[in-house]
TrEMBL record:
SMART domains found in the cross-reference section: HTH_ARSR (SM00418)
Residue ranges of domain HTH arsR-type in the record: 1-90
Coiled-coil blocks: none
Descriptive protein name: ArsR family transcriptional regulator
Domain of life: Bacteria
PANTHER family the UniProt entry points to: DINITROGENASE IRON-MOLYBDENUM COFACTOR BIOSYNTHESIS DOMAIN-CONTAINING PROTEIN (PTHR33937:SF2), IRON-MOLYBDENUM PROTEIN-RELATED-RELATED (PTHR33937)
GO MF annotation terms: DNA-binding transcription factor activity
A family per Pfam: HTH_5
InterPro entries reported in the protein's UniProt record: ArsR-like_HTH, Di-Nase_FeMo-co_biosynth, DiNase_FeMo-co_biosyn_sf, HTH_ArsR_DNA-bd_dom, MTH1175_dom, NifX/NifY_domain, WH-like_DNA-bd_sf, WH_DNA-bd_sf
NCBIfam families registered for this protein in UniProt: HTH_metalloreg
Length: 243
């Protein structure tokens, strides 16, 4: 496991990925790599050392030059490891499918695993125009809401946070940035685009359509299971945006 962690950590650097892509076509010396990537040989040598330390590349001498090539065996083993994670029917000495996430992850795939009990919804987020507590009115669109009011059903506490992604490009809402990192279990809103729904769902956050009335009325409807959950294919028609 540790070796794969080192490999995937190394792949988090763009230059190292570019080196791998470059030498996947044919072997190349450090000078040639530097010329193609338009960086210094010293920078290439530094990245090559890291890639060699984790056995992703190998070098062999031809004349006065050392030619670097992919270590296909190591790359193939890394691919198989990823396939093992994706395919929850495959098993190894540790059954990847049965591993529980850390920190009470509520990712939809974890929640759907019948070995992991889905946690009840406790924190509900309402996009609003102004903070009037539970008397606030749900806003018509998630991404352009100035504020979010978060209601904790367990403690009955109510707090508000500003939209941290208010100036985002159309259709490119980043929900967690908008929520300023606040952890919530559900969002209740008048309108929302499919992109934001899918991003929220991928983090285990359900999205429901608000009804007419204030937050208090919507909370009552939620507790009575009367709120409709938005499908992932929902098209938002807020101000004719259709995204």
């Amino acid at each position: 496991m540790e070796e794969f962690i080192k490999i995937f950590k190394a792949l988090g650097d763009e230059t190292r990925v570019n080196i791998l892509l470059l030498i996947s076509n044919r072997g190349m010396c450090a000078k040639g790599i530097a010329r193609h990537l338009e960086i210094s040989e010293a920078a290439v040598s530094q990245q090559i050392k890291i890639l060699k330390d984790i056995d992703l590349i190998q070098g062999y001498k031809i004349g006065y030059h050392i030619i670097y090539d992919l270590n296909e065996e190591k790359i193939n083993s890394s691919i198989k490891f990823l396939e093992l994670i994706i395919d929850n029917e495959k098993t190894s000495t540790t059954n990847i499918a049965n591993l529980k996430c850390l920190n009470g992850c509520k990712h939809m795939k974890c929640a759907s695993n019948n070995k992991i009990k889905e946690e009840p919804i406790m924190k509900i987020c309402f996009p609003v125009e102004s903070n009037e507590g539970v008397k606030s009115i749900p806003y018509g669109h998630f991404g352009t809401a100035p504020l979010f009011v978060i209601c904790d059903l367990e403690t009955n506490k109510v707090k508000s946070v500003g939209n941290g992604d208010l100036g985002h490009e159309h259709g490119k809402c980043q929900p967690m940035k908008a929520l300023s990192g606040e952890e919530v279990d559900a969002v209740v809103v008048g309108g929302i685009g499919a992109g934001a729904i899918n991003k929220l769902n991928s983090m285990g956050i359900k999205v429901f359509q608000a009804i007419q009335g204030d937050l208090e009325k919507n909370l009552e409807a939620f507790k009575e299971n009367k709120l409709k959950e938005f499908p992932s294919t929902h098209v938002c028609n807020h101000d004719g945006c259709s995204h």
